[in-house]
Amino acid sequence: MRLHGTKSDFILYVEVNGAYHGPDTYALAPWPGASLGVADGIAKVAIREWASGILWESTAGSLTIDKSEESGWVYAGLGASDYSPVDVQLNIAGWWSCS
User: Could you tell me the sign of the dihedral formed by the alpha carbons of 72, 80, 59, 57, in that order?
Assistant: First the structure.
């Protein structure tokens, strides 16, 4: 999902790879490895700045997937990934949906 800010655009990643059991609320925890797309059983949320590629990955919070399995709610604390040149913490909360 692409998000448009006043100065920057971002991509929101939502992933439950390897532990998905249907609509539910999944706990967000620090990632065991610095990668999306790995079936490691961890629910993940990430924000990537469109222009720079800087990635912030979820470290705490929750990801809710609604009955449609194409939308839900996210409440997450995010920290810069090991590959990002910044050390800024972010918090996000709000509805999400697949387009």
Answer: positive
